From TrEMBL:
Organism whose genome encodes this protein: Rubripirellula lacrimiformis
Start and end residues of each stretch annotated as Disordered: 1-21
Protein's name according to its UniProt entry: BON domain protein
Composition bias, Polar residues: 1-10
Highest taxon in the source lineage: Bacteria
């Protein structure tokens, strides 16, 4: 049998275009959950800077979260804020 290669039917994502905020929020939260950071969550995004709310995370955990989130298209930097309940 002669099988042809599958044809790409979807348009590839442009890495330079900023993603929709709702999609970005979902992708950030999913990435954090996959890494086991259940207390961390997306707060906001402004001009590629994502803010994450979290408690009880040391510098090593923040570095891991930062790398994971910066791998997402449209993210240029990551900031961390303490949870409201921790203050």
């Amino acid at each position: 049998m002669n099988q042809s290669e599958p044809q790409m039917t979807e348009t590839p994502i442009d890495a330079d275009s900023p993603p929709n905020d709702v999609d970005l929020k979902q992708r950030v939260n999913e990435s954090l959950l996959k890494l086991g950071y259940v207390q961390a969550k997306f707060v906001s995004e402004t001009a590629g800077k994502v803010t994450i709310e979290c408690t009880d995370t040391d510098r090593n955990d923040q570095c891991v979260m930062q790398v994971a989130v910066r791998l997402l298209p449209g993210v240029t930097s990551v900031a961390f804020v303490a949870s409201e309940g921790a203050r």
